[in-house]
What we know:
Elements: H1 9-16, E1 26-30, H2 35-51, E2 54-62, H3 82-100, E3 107-114, H4 116-126, E4 131-135, H5 141-147, H6 150-157, E5 161-165
Parallel strand pairs: 1-2, 1-4, 2-3, 4-5
Helix pairs in contact: 2-3, 4-6
Amino acid sequence: MSILPNVNITYLHYYVVGDIMNNVKKILIATDGSEHSKKAASEGIGLAKIYGAKVFAVYVMKELSSKTLPYGARITNFDIPHEDIKREGQQALQYVEELGNPQGVAVDTVLLAGYPAEEILDFAKENEIDIIVMGSLGRTGLERYLMGSVSEKVLRHAKTAVMVIP
């Protein structure tokens, strides 16, 4: 069932989205390999195809430090080698790249290390990104309060448009 069954999509697009999307030339798709980010990647690739935009898929290997953990928590598992984390990132980026190929959308993949929200925001600024597309992590309750979510931090601090896909 459509909410607005008799509305022309072009008309709706212009009045809801306006000129923001008309100027989209560079799209940053932030991925962490989760189902939420896979949905976001699909939406981002779709936008790139429509607007002929360049796509950057960005994966950030999160730094583990006392700043990223809840108060009083300690890092106790050092068994995850850096190469495994890097491989996980490369797989997430490859997924986005493979989504773009059949659509005729070229994807530049970027693997970064640091704090995800900060790295995404810095990359967007340095590369003059027009829109950031990312998934919602769906964190709730105490965990979200203590740690915050990457998508929320990006939304609060981005100097460009951000599309968060649930």
